[in-house]
Amino acid sequence: MMDHAPESAHFRRLEDHVFLAERGGPPPLNVGLILGEDAAVLIDPGPAGGDHTALLAAVRELSSAELIVVNTHGHPDHVGANDFLRRQGVHRILAHADAGVETATDLVAAEPVTLPLGGGVEVVLEHLGRGHTQGDLVVGVRAEGSTGVMFCGDLVREGDDPEFHDSYPKEWVRALGRLWSMAGSYSRFVPGHGHEVDADFIASMRRRMQQGYNVSSQAIRESVNDATKAIPIVPYGPGESRELITRLRGR
Ligand SMILES: [Zn+2]
C-alpha cells in the first residue's frame, strides 16, 4: 500500500483530435491536448506542484509525436508545470509576449500564429486584446469534420466569477465580443476552469461584464473616495466586485 495515491491524469475525448483533462484545484484547471500526425499541443499543463510524470504518461499513451506546450496566459496555476516539461525534452513553449512566462521559447504578439500539426489538424493562437491579463491567448482547433473547439483560458470562466485582480475590464468586454464573433468558426468553447460553454454563454458573460463595468465606472465618477459602496450593485460576488472597482479606480 502506498501512503497516498499518485495524481491520476485522464484525458477524455472531446472530438477526434481534441482531449481534455482536469488538474489540481479546486477549482480544477482544464488542460487541453490536441493531436496531429506530426505534433501534439498541450494547452496549460498546470501548476508547479503535482504529479507531472502522470500527466506526461497520459499524453504519451495517446501520442508519441513532438510535444508543443501553449500557455493561454501567465498565471502560475496554468504555467507552473512548464519547467518540468522542458526538463523532459519539450523544447517549444508558446505564450503571449506580455504574459511574463519565463519558460516560453516562442512569443506570440499581435499576429495570430498557426501551428500545423499534421494530418489536417491545425491550432491557431490569437491575442484578442488585453482582458483577464495583459497577455491572454485563445487557442482554436481546426480539423476535418470538427465543429471547431476554442480553448479560452481564463478569458472565460464557468461556474464562478471572472478574476479581475490583474485584468483590463474595459478591454476584456471587447475581447469577449471578438470571441463571440468567432462562433461561426467555433462551436465549442472550453474555459480555463469550469465546464465547456457555447456562444450564448460568452454573450451573456460579455453583457454582465459590460454592466459591471458601467456601474463600477459610474460609482467611481460619483464618489471617488468610496466607490466600494457600489459593490452590492456590481453583478458579481463581493470579492470580485471589489477587485473590479479597484482595478478600474487604479487606472
Ligand atoms: Zn488566470
From TrEMBL:
InterPro entries: Metallo-B-lactamas, NDM-1-like, RibonucZ/Hydroxyglut_hydro
Keyword tags: Hydrolase
Pfam families in alphabetical order: Lactamase_B
Keyword Hydrolase part of the UniProt annotation: yes
Top-level taxon of origin: Bacteria
Signal peptide (residue range): none
Molecular functions (GO terms): hydrolase activity
Domain Metallo-beta-lactamase: 28-193
Name listed for the protein in its UniProt record: Glyoxylase-like metal-dependent hydrolase (Beta-lactamase superfamily II)
